UniProtKB/TrEMBL annotation:
The entry's keywords: Membrane, Transmembrane, Transmembrane helix
Domain Armadillo-like helical: 435-671
GO annotation, cellular component aspect: cytosol; membrane
PANTHER family, sorted: ARMADILLO-LIKE HELICAL DOMAIN-CONTAINING PROTEIN 3
Source species: Culter alburnus
Subcellular location: Membrane
Residues that span the membrane, as ranges: none
Protein name: Armadillo-like helical domain-containing protein
Entry-linked InterPro entries: ARM-type_fold, ARMD3-like, ARMH3_C
Length: 689
């Protein structure tokens, strides 16, 4: 019995004396790539073509093998293929629609692969012809819109989204993809919103829809008016916004669950001890190393929603039961063994479960809590550029949240308390806290915990200066809100003060190495001004008078760090050089901290001498502090409670361009129209037809 093997459209018999036979569809492709019109000998050519199972590999390979001159010779036939693909999308025969969608994908990919150096206009001309391009793309987008919004097959809708993702990501730089101009003109924004607002549709296609929207929003966003940005910024439909939040929430939750499962797998025995000692994330086989690579596409979608749409802020606080992801039955999503965590969409059962029965003993959660847990994983390891960028995006999102008035209101709401179990980096000097010991507190406490954790764990040789600056800015914005609204937050402020002082100590110890790469005075100024905020306005937002006393105690106890900082900035500011001015600003900012130290230290020494005590206890120092406030003179410093609001352009434009490029490459890689999916689709529609 003859055994067949498929390769590039060839069917080879086991007998070597026979010539390889070509599939019929491959023969038809060859006719398209000949100079003659294929309908000349067969008027039903196009009808027959779309009844044939697409050979993606052969078609893309054929397109890639043509050089510029050859492409122009068969341009009319390629234009005709594109035209008939678009026409076939309106067919009632579903197999034709499936094959047309897959053929279009092969066309977009094949032409772009071969002509990477060609202009967008040349590619448009190759695919559909200049004179017909506007009409063809209008017809294509209308057909895709109808398929996405209709009551048809979910598989077809999925294929439409895959085609759109394929189209959007064919170029490395999304803004150089000229075909997307037609996607701007013939918007599918409403179709995306419809998918997100419908529970069933969202479960099937929400992930692809959200990623597609995030990419479209970033098309030439700085050069022209992008209609997707405009439309996203004014969406106020609650089910749609909730749907978008649900998709993002489940994708992040799924990542958190995978991480936790993998973490538990790797705990125990010698390897666990070794992991804790060296501070590594995991010990694993090289082939199965756990990647902490974030799902940047879904994170970008969250950023765009938070940044562009004020109404989305309410979605962050939408409470629902916290699902124990480990015990929830899920449908596995096929992924390669080397697929990093979070790069595959969440399972459908999770996506299709927007409401669960409320259990009075069940901890409630929301998108913000899930994002904070996710961020606590991502910011742990920033050693390579990819992870550093992921952590940066997390902190940018938190920056947008921290300066939003409505977000600040629910972050500080005493009636909205949650237990947030943040992931912490293994460190030798501390034990892992038990989940049950985590108190229920306003969400701002979890944000501050995350910031403190970052400050404490990233004082290293490859110092992530940018992340530290963002971290201190987030803390500052939250404290400005507390001061403005006179919110007395019951938080262990001492942990923050201790972390900030240790950060200053680190900057001093590594001055030479850090100054070669960074402006450490900018960060030092931010830290000192945080202390100035507490000194000047602490009586309006610290929870108790004793908290204010403890602030002074910490400054006095660690006075050597502030003294050393003053000596360093004074030395730099009195010498000519590039750091003269920034160092001088820190010198002026230290005036009140030094006043406190110079006022109380002699009083403490005098108290110790009079009472014949060699070393005072904390209570004794606090007693001296309380009894000597009246004679302390401080200077009023302006602008401590002012901050520059976040703006994406121009500061962050370069970062987002590179981020979108990275996401586009990753999405392109994962948009798979494999033989298996073809077989599934064809089987489904063969039974219908």
């Amino acid at each position: 019995m003859a055994q067949t093997e498929k390769k590039s459209g060839l069917l080879r018999r086991t007998s070597s004396s026979k010539k390889p036979l070509k599939e019929k569809v491959v023969l038809m492709y060859d006719e398209i790539f000949a100079k003659e019109d294929p309908t000349k000998n067969n008027p039903r050519f196009w009808d027959e073509l779309f009844l044939m199972k697409v050979n993606l590999e052969y078609l893309e390979g054929k397109l890639e093998s043509l050089d510029g001159d050859e492409v122009m010779k068969v341009k009319d036939n390629i234009n005709s293929l594109f035209h008939h693909c678009v026409q076939a999308l309106g067919e009632e025969h579903q197999i034709k629609v499936v094959n047309a969608l897959q053929t279009l994908c092969a066309l977009f990919r094949g032409v772009h692969q071969k002509n990477k150096s060609a202009t967008g206009f040349d590619i448009i001309n190759m695919l559909m012809g200049f004179d017909k391009a506007e009409l063809r793309m209008k017809e294509l987008m209308e057909s895709l819109d109808s398929l996405l919004c209709g009551d048809g097959s979910e598989s077809l809708k999925s294929l439409c989204l895959k085609l759109l993702l394929c189209l959007v990501t064919v170029t490395d730089n999304i803004s150089q993809n000229t075909i997307l101009e037609y996607v701007m003109i013939n918007s599918i924004f409403e179709a995306i919103l419809q998918i997100l607002s419908d529970v069933s549709s969202r479960a099937q296609h929400g992930y692809d829809a959200v990623v597609l929207l995030a990419l479209l929003v970033n098309y030439r966003k700085y050069e022209s008016v992008n209609p997707y940005i405009v439309k996203l910024s004014i969406v106020d439909d609650e089910p749609t916004l909730d749907g978008m939040g649900m998709v993002i929430h489940h994708a992040l939750t799924d990542y958190n669950r995978q991480y936790k499962d993998k973490e538990e797998e790797n705990q125990g025995g010698f390897f666990s001890t070794l992991t804790s000692m060296v501070g590594n994330m995991f010990i694993a086989d090289a082939d199965e190393k756990l990647s902490v690579q974030t799902n940047e596409a879904i994170l970008l979608a969250l950023y765009e929603a938070v940044h562009l749409n004020r109404n989305f802020i309410t979605v962050l606080a939408q409470s629902h039961p916290e699902i124990d992801m480990a015990t929830t039955p899920v449908t596995p999503v096929p992924a390669s063994p080397l697929t990093p965590l979070g790069t595959t969409p969440p399972s459908l059962d999770m996506m299709n479960n927007p409401e669960l029965p409320l259990d009075p003993n069940l901890q409630t959660s929301n998108l913000l809590i899930t994002f904070l847990k996710y961020s606590s994983i991502i910011v742990q390891d920033t050693k390579d550029e990819h992870r550093l960028n992921s952590a940066r995006l997390c902190l940018i999102i938190l920056t947008c949240i921290a300066e939003d008035q409505y977000a600040d209101a629910f972050l500080h709401d005493d009636n909205m308390n949650f237990r947030v179990n943040l992931h912490k980096m293994p460190m030798r000097h501390r034990k892992k806290a038990a989940d049950k010991n985590i108190p229920s507190r306003p969400l701002v406490c979890a944000v501050l915990d995350l910031m403190v954790e970052f400050i404490v764990t990233h004082m290293m040789k490859e110092f992530p200066m940018d992340l530290y600056v963002r971290c201190i800015q987030i803390i500052h914005k939250l404290i400005c809100y507390q001061k403005k609204c006179r919110i007395r937050l019951h938080y262990t402020w001492r942990d923050l003060w201790s972390a900030l002082i240790n950060l200053l100590k680190f900057l001093l110890s590594n001055e030479t190495g850090l100054l070669a790469k960074h402006n450490i005075f900018q960060l030092a100024l931010q830290v000192v001004n945080l202390f100035n905020m507490f000194i000047t306005y602490g009586d309006t937002f610290l929870p108790t008078p004793s908290s204010y006393d403890e602030l002074y105690y910490e400054i006095i106890r660690m006075h050597q760090v502030f003294d050393n900082l003053y000596c360093m900035v004074l030395r730099v500011s009195t010498n000519a050089g590039q750091w003269k001015e920034p160092a001088s600003k820190v010198t002026h900012a230290l005036v009140n901290v030094r006043a406190i130290i110079n006022h109380f230290n002699p009083k403490i020494e005098s108290y110790a001498a009079v009472n014949h005590i060699s070393q005072l206890s904390e209570d004794q120092v606090l007693e001296v502090v309380r009894s000597n406030y009246d004679t302390l003179t401080l200077k009023l410093q302006d602008g401590l409670d002012q901050f520059e609001r976040y703006s994406e352009q121009p500061k962050e434009a370069g970062f987002f361009k590179e981020l979108v490029r990275s996401i586009s490459l990753n999405v392109r890689k994962n948009v798979s129209l494999s033989t298996m999916s073809q077989d599934v689709l064809l089987k489904e529609f063969s039974s219908i037809s």
